[in-house]
Amino acid sequence: MNDSEEYQQRKQFYDQLLTIYGRKPVLEALQQPGIQIHRLHLADSNKSAAILDDIVAIAQRHNAEICYHSKQALSRISRNGKQDQGVAVDLVLGGYRAYEDFLKTAPNQYELLALDGITNPQNLGMILRTVAASGIAGVLLPKKGCAQIDPLVIKASAGALFRCPILRCDDLAAALQNFQAAGAKVCGLSSHARQSLGEFQALAPTIFVLGNETHGVSSAVQALADHNLRIPMANGVESLNVAITASLLAFRHQLTGA
Amino acid sequence: MNDSEEYQQRKQFYDQLLTIYGRKPVLEALQQPGIQIHRLHLADSNKSAAILDDIVAIAQRHNAEICYHSKQALSRISRNGKQDQGVAVDLVLGGYRAYEDFLKTAPNQYELLALDGITNPQNLGMILRTVAASGIAGVLLPKKGCAQIDPLVIKASAGALFRCPILRCDDLAAALQNFQAAGAKVCGLSSHARQSLGEFQALAPTIFVLGNETHGVSSAVQALADHNLRIPMANGVESLNVAITASLLAFRHQLTGA
């Protein structure tokens, strides 16, 4: 293996890591099923505490490496020295990577969900669980405007987060434009759209965008959408929970057998 | 209209009423969108309080009848004098009725969901919202073993509860046997089942039973199920959130166009 290949493999591995910090958040994350721990990081200035013993015990059960650092070095790992409380953990998320990596080797046809302002951690966790179970290509999760992966999200995902193909991006609209440049179509979901999901046929790679729980798809994304789709609703109901909408999109091929 | 018809109409109306009691629960329920208030009941012994003023103001905005009672009479309405705090409200649930009523006039073909030990109010609310939006015939909600409709459930349903066809029963297994006697088939959902949902064809009225969030379908219901079905899952995910499963069942005909 040459240096460049080794570098790529290491980059790929480190890209899958998610760092969580703070005593309670770390303990709660480690208590979830399906967790994969790379390294536990502790400040060597920590005084002994029951919660730290619990955290170390779980890390040991998982045979995770435990590293001690100066307070300053730890704050470079947590990137939040004010709130890390002397503890951080690197979790391995099997399907976590930059969307650019996905695009480089994307198949001819695929479907993704994209999250545009999903701020409720329960909803995010349920969506990640559903996407993992559905087998679709993944979910595009921007750093801006969405809830980020934290212990609440891990809990709501029932551990499925560790198996979910999550494509990271910074800004959703910019990422969607790159997907469009590569031939993908962007579909915004909206209860006001004229076209129903059942009428839509995906003839190209397709990204379904789910908008904020209250305000829907953002205007920046709306402006670049190729289609707007609605899920028909009975009894005058105005909208579905966003995680429910996500599940109908992600599982529609299994249900239709298409 | 003869006496018997009048009695039937009145019975039908009163069957749709759901009584909620306690100051905070009543206020929270009344603050939800889509709420329909029949009567607000107050104890004439209540001392003035800001929360009561808020409750009365909402009832007035809805042109609801406001009735004053002795403490004792109010406790007969709330059926819980110890916790009603001098307040109860009758809400009108448009689709709320006894399952026996549904069976009397049931169409030749229909699909229902049945809830077997759904204890999380968030899940119950999401299921009721989804069922209302899907247009399927209804959801069978037993008094025993499930979360009951309370302000948390109303909130999680985003008000759709007031439009959801909810069929009340006491004991689920007994009700399912009555449905079976009337020609319906009972399908338990389980991630361990051999048959997948996509392989199942509903040739008779069908009731899909959703089990407890942790323990699944109860043994009493399992014993009488005609089919056991699973939803195929990718990436080694073991289960879906029960409200997600409910949505896939309720919406599968819209998605398939069948």
TrEMBL record, chains A, B:
Top EC class for this record: transferase
Matching InterPro entries: Alpha/beta_knot_MTases (IPR029028), Ribosomal_eL30-like_sf (IPR029064), rRNA_MeTrfase_TrmH (IPR004441), SpoU_MeTrfase (IPR001537), SpoU_subst-bd (IPR013123), tRNA_m1G_MTases_N (IPR029026)
Alphabetical list of Gene3D superfamilies matching this protein: 3.30.1330.30, 3.40.1280.10
GO biological process terms held by the UniProt record: methylation; RNA processing
Its EC number(s): 2.1.1.185
Keyword terms: Methyltransferase, Transferase
PANTHER family the UniProt entry points to: 23S RRNA (GUANOSINE-2'-O-)-METHYLTRANSFERASE RLMB
Protein name in the entry: 23S rRNA (Guanosine2251-2'-O)-methyltransferase
Gene source species: Simiduia aestuariiviva
